[in-house]
Amino acid sequence: MDSILQLEGVTKTFTDVEAVKNVSFSVKRGEIFGFLGPNGAGKTTTIRTIMGIIAPDKGKISFCFDGEAGHRLAVQEDKKKVGYLPEERGIYSTTKVMETILYFADLKGADLQQAEKDAREWLLKLDLADYQDKKIEELSKGMQQKIQFIIAVIHRPQLVIFDELFSGLDPVNQELFKEIIKELRDQGTTVLLSSHRMNLVEELCDRIFLINKGQKVLYGSLDKIKDDFGVKKVWIRYRGEKKIKPSWPEIKDFTQDKNEICFTLPKGVKPGELLSQVLQDLEIEEIAVNKLSLHDIFIATVGDDKR
Ligand SMILES: Nc1ncnc2c1ncn2[C@@H]1O[C@H](COP(=O)(O)OP(=O)(O)OP(=O)(O)O)[C@@H](O)[C@H]1O
User: Fold this and answer.
1) Do 134 and 243 lie in a common domain?
2) Closest protein CA for atom 2 of ligand 1
3) Any idea where the ABC transporter domain is (predicted)?
4) For residue 305, is it within any domain?
5) Whose CA is nearest to atom 7 of ligand 1?
6) ipTM of this predicted complex?
7) Ligand 1 centre and the CA of 201: distance in Å?
């Protein structure tokens, strides 16, 4: 898979904050790429440099549309190939919903007849069909966010960047957008998704970049990151209420709740060998051995600093 977007050594310093330090990654054509990090990590700053809203102090950002050679997003024509949902929400406006969507579609050079047809379909899909003639300011925050989503995709961009798409959406709408993002990917759109919602990222993305304090922490395929991390989480439910006192030095983060125990095994410890010793005198009802979730890896990697 070739890259549609490439960042090489991107650095951005504000007066007294090094917001982004030497960040490099590439987004492959047709993938859903997760861009993660705690609050203040540098995600939005990186995205704004990608969108050409702020210039990086150092580094190179290049796009490669339709197999062309990579170049900066300077040309107006190229900007039309990218969609962007910014983190800051609210398009408070007295303009009507459909007019607003078509205004942005026009700015991005979309065919207006096609855009109007697409807009109707999106509004229907997002449960806003009755709102097309309402003023934007009459919509709730979540509804306005849906309109911003439509604006980001109305010109059928090749690459779309969602900065915290899921924030402010209720669980039903989060599920709806999860499906929509998969559909966009299946239709050939590349998606860069910045988010704190680890469970959603885990379900949607094959590859991620985790940034903390402006710098790379983890980058690559989620499966490989989990394998490299190596820690396994073990959960066991057994018959009876025997109190367990683990005497095995390999076991970490041990907790017990009635007849359920949970612990982690560090990288390199083979669960089979240990469990055969641990389980000798327990009558097991259920057992699960899993790689750490992205949420656990996130906490383990950046949590200490945050605390
Ligand atoms: N315009 C600015 N002027 C000064 N400092 C800024 C500016 N924009 C961002 N920063 C600083 O840069 C750092 C990174 O901010 P950024 O908004 O990129 O983080 P983020 O990862 O998007 O955070 P969040 O998840 O909280 O939105 C922060 O320390 C922030 O205070």
Assistant:
1) no
2) 14
3) 5-238
4) no
5) 14
6) 0.97
7) 21
